[in-house]
Design goal:
The complex is a heterodimer of chains A (404) and B (294). Chain A contains 11 helices and 16 strands. Chain A is an alpha/beta fold and 404 residues long. Chain B has one domain. Classes of the chains: A alpha/beta (404), B mainly alpha (294).
């Protein structure tokens, strides 16, 4: 069968797969004291003091319907601004956002609640905001009350609530409002551990029912477990987008090196030169295809140092894909009192004590106790038996068992 | 702000050039958010007298108190009750003449002041929820319309008790609506400026107080011809839309006559123009000011 020229352009067909398409989105704010009186305006005081600030710069991301996007980054990196842009609360200064479906933005739980109305009244009112009928609200009210778990407070004015209660009710109401696209800003961070687990599970259930979710969070392990892709913002710019484990690992490594550089002077930070470690080879020791739990790992590190190092040493650390450290590190210090030129250092770990899963191997070169070079390589550790989810825990304990 | 793709009603596009809205787009978006507007109206009505013992009775007590105070001060003490127009059946009562002006002016005053503040008041909420910028203004207008309609009840009762009620009194209903339309127009015109410079709100409340005495509320319209020599000034005071609005209301309630068609046309025309200009200015600048960009 031959197909003649298609009537619909291809990109339009593609469009419908995505609930959210942000293309080259930038958001600029004007900083400085905004004049709120005519006197300031006339005297021209404030205008001169204002500078522009790009909270989000050239961010593009497409989110497929029914998938979950996690957004990470340090405080002030533009995460919330970006989320607000997706929700139409801020217009992009440049670029475009296309949204398909009814958006519910959970930027602050309980936003829009009136303090003098009761929790129940507020829930009904919130339903009215998104156009749900009273009958529907009657039906879900039981579920809201149960989920919020605030007991008789449901019929007390919201102003008498604790912030945790308000958040729980806000969350309970929002997830019952049949969102199609849910934008959540750090919402499971409030409340106690039960609420957090409940909230995370609830988000997962929403996603399974086909809701598209964008979630800003600092809870990296939760994002790694639940998201289809992760966007990492740093000073408003995209630093990474894609596989959650990889992006989160990069972010963690970046944060770690940031902490490191903050602890030292700016001059010392500039002195860290990755190129001094010219080569890193990591391979299984006993002819296996991949690094495997309990089997050997062979390491080869090439150095190319143009200037002399004092009391040089090499430090190796294993960190988990989600950024959690492992108790394992290696220090190699037998390099003489000084070192300059090129060298190849090889070593072997006879039995890898790590569990299966994703890791990063961080290699640092030190001179007189100061880090002069640092590099990271990904490391996928397979289990000889299991083929699937990473095991629990951090390390493989040596043990013997008897079945009787 | 929200551009709806005609071929795909589910798709919302946010981009920088969609910021300046036309009145038509703004109105259409408000219609889409009508349940939100009605929610805000219900909420405002619900909380108005939430913490008071007498509750809604205050909506009846306030206008009655106003009539008593103004009748005492301007009627009894300052003898403002001279030159009242001749009503049928030799009816002559300064409080009845007064209450019409007060009730009509209150529709305008409440609407315009509430709308003027509505934009600045919702700046915080706007950072958390998306809703059309014009929505709070509309909900405040509906709130005033419903709340102040109790004053119409007071007015009707007032005339009924005096035995001076006629079917022509029904004109106060369209007059009240027009008062709200004027209030909405003026409020919208100033509300964005007020969000940037609170001075606007303070100036407006002073202006309202002056305006209250400039139009024939506590003094009869006949004073204009009697006391103002300047012809242009006379016309200006008489054809001020709010003075006209009160005059039309008095025709129906106090004088028992149907207001002339010309007056209705004049009022419908001026109120539409005021609303259109106010909304246009609002739609052009509201999005930028909401984000603190200007």
């Amino acid at each position: 069968m031959t197909q003649t020229a298609h009537e619909a352009p291809l990109d339009l067909v593609d469009d419908h797969r995505y609930a959210i398409e942000a293309s080259h989105v930038s958001k600029r704010f004007m900083l400085g004291s905004r004049s709120t009186s005519i006197k300031d305006r006339l005297t021209g005081f404030s205008d001169r003091a204002r500078t522009e600030f790009w909270a989000v710069r050239d961010v593009s991301v497409s989110v497929e319907k029914g998938s979950m996007l996690g957004v990470i980054g340090r405080n002030g990196s533009g995460k919330s601004t970006f989320l607000r842009t997706l929700g139409g609360i801020y217009r992009p200064t440049e670029g475009e956002v296309r949204i398909r479906g009814r958006v519910t933005a959970l930027l602050e739980l309980g936003a829009g609640f009136h303090p003098e109305l009761t929790g129940r009244e507020n829930a009904y009112m919130n339903g009215a905001v998104v156009g749900l009928s009273r009958d529907y609200m009657d039906d879900v009210m039981g579920a809201i009350v149960e989920m919020a778990d605030i007991g008789t407070f449901i019929d007390a004015p919201v102003e008498t609530y604790s912030s945790g209660m308000k958040a729980r009710l806000g969350f309970a109401v929002s997830v019952q409002l049949q969102p199609e696209v849910l934008l959540a800003d750090e919402i499971t961070a409030v409340g106690d551990i039960t609420f957090r687990e409940h909230g995370t599970r609830r988000m997962q259930a929403l996603r399974e029912s086909g809701v598209t979710i964008v979630q800003v969070s600092h809870s990296l392990s939760m994002l790694q477990d639940t998201c289809d892709q992760v966007l990492w913002l740093h000073q408003g710019e995209m630093m990474g987008l894609g596989d959650p484990a990889e992006v989160i690992a990069d972010y963690m490594a970046h944060a770690a090196s940031d902490t490191l550089t903050q602890a030292r002077s700016a001059a010392a930070a500039e002195a860290v030169r990755p190129e001094l470690i010219s080569r890193i080879d990591v391979s299984p020791a006993d002819g296996r295809a991949e690094p495997t739990v309990g089997h050997g790992l062979r390491l080869m590190i090439g150095l190319d140092v143009p200037e002399e190092l004092e009391r040089p040493s090499l430090r190796l650390r294993f960190i988990r894909g989600n950024g959690a450290p492992t108790p394992y590190g290696i220090t190699f210090a037998e390099m003489g009192d000084t070192f300059v030129g090129t060298a190849a250092i090889s070593g072997e770990v006879p039995e890898l004590p790590l569990l299966n899963g994703r890791y990063r191997l961080v290699i640092e070169l030190l001179s007189d106790g100061e880090i002069v070079s640092a590099r990271r390589v990904p490391l996928d550790v397979k289990s000889p038996l299991l083929d699937g989810d990473p095991s629990t825990g951090f390390i493989e304990l040596e043990s013997s068992w008897l079945l009787s | 702000m929200t551009a709806i793709d005609p071929g795909d009603p589910d798709l919302a596009v946010f981009s920088s050039d969609a910021g300046r809205q036309t009145v038509f787009a703004s109105a259409r978006e408000a219609w889409k958010y009508r349940s939100f507007i009605s929610y805000m109206t219900k909420r405002d009505l619900r909380i108005t007298y939430l913490r008071s013992y007498l509750g809604w009775l205050w909506s009846l007590i306030n206008p009655i108190a106003e009539v008593i105070i103004y009748s005492l001060v301007f009627g009894v003490i300052l003898k403002g009750n001279r030159s009242l127009p001749d009503a049928p059946n030799n009816f002559s009562s300064f409080p009845h003449y007064l209450i019409v002006g007060l009730v009509v002016f209150n529709f305008y005053r409440s609407t315009s002041s509430k709308v003027l503040n509505s934009f600045a008041q919702t700046v915080k909420l706007r950072r958390k929820l998306y809703f059309p910028p014009v929505a709070p203004a509309l909900s405040q207008t509906f709130t005033t319309l419903i709340q102040n309609s109790l004053e119409i009840v007071v007015l009707i009762l007032f005339f009924a008790i005096a035995g001076h009620l006629s079917i022509t009194a029904i004109v106060v209903i369209p007059v009240a609506l027009l008062g709200c339309v004027f209030g909405l127009g003026v409020g919208l015109l100033l509300s964005v400026a007020n969000a940037r410079y609170r001075d606007v709100g303070y100036l407006y409340s002073i202006f309202l107080r002056l305006f209250f005495y400039l139009i024939p509320i506590i003094w009869p319209l006949e004073f204009v011809d009697e006391r103002i020599g300047n012809k242009t000034l006379q016309t200006l005071v008489k054809w001020n839309p709010l003075a006209k609005l009160i005059e039309v209301a008095r025709d129906g309630t106090y004088l028992h006559q149907w207001p002339p068609l010309n007056d209705w046309i004049y009022l419908a025309g001026t109120s539409s123009v005021v609303l259109l200009i106010g909304w246009m200015v609002f739609a052009r600048s509201s999005a930028d000011v909401a984000e603190g960009l200007t």
